[in-house]
């Protein structure tokens, strides 16, 4: 403590100097600590203590700055781990929904171009299957995956609405990760489509991979747009602040 007149302010100053968190987290920590300390000091004053003694008692019972920061770090780590887990659930669910949408696109391709356009693919796990079976499975199994994805995404939003977690990850990070994942899937699936077109007979089986590539392109555009919008919003807030 640098003075004996404002123990709580001195404690908060020391806490701010010791904190290595980002400005927003530090400000939140100081606000919470200050609210608790001033409320405790007011209670001690009502019991008959003078103001300085009440502040000293509140600070003493609150704990040393190092202990407070250690507790805050543990809380931040848990919050970060939970946010990462929620992000993984969201992105996994969206990925499964994209698979389901590709199943719908396969159904359109089967009707428009014939079963061979999708079912003629040479992929692991289709050995012994007829072209018709492969084309039909590409619809039913993908749509089933899409339904599972919808359940995951709905569960994510219900849980988020119920718990109302504080934002921990940087603005736009989840969307940027989604964009990167869909972009990578686009590259892989386009490459597989080209390879199937070259090695297949008369373009048979191209639709098996092309259906996924087209949905992946849409996912890339959507997530890129969301990430860009989030980053621009964040920059505008910083500029105003």
SSE blueprint:
Layout (H helix, E strand, L loop, with lengths): L6 H12 L4 H24 L4 H12 L2 H49 L2 H4 L11 H33 L9 H27 L6 H35 L1
Helix pairs in contact: 1-2, 1-4, 2-3, 4-6, 4-8, 7-8
Mean pLDDT: 83
Helix segment tally: 8
Low-confidence stretches: none
Proportion of residues in β-strands? under 5%
Total domain modules: 2
- The number of E-state strands comes to 0
Distance between the termini: 31 Å
Describe the fold and architecture.
By secondary structure, this protein is mostly helical. It has two domains: 7-63, no CATH class; 77-240, no CATH class. It has eight helices and no strands. It has helices at residues 7-18, 23-46, 51-62, 65-113, 116-119, 131-163, 173-199, 206-240. Helix 1 packs across helix 4 (65-113) and helix 4 packs antiparallel against helix 6 (131-163). The protein is rod-shaped. The relative contact order is 0.10. The mean pLDDT is 83.
In short:
By secondary structure, this protein is an all-alpha fold.
Q: Key features?
A:
241 residues; mainly alpha; 2 domains; 8 helices; 81% helix
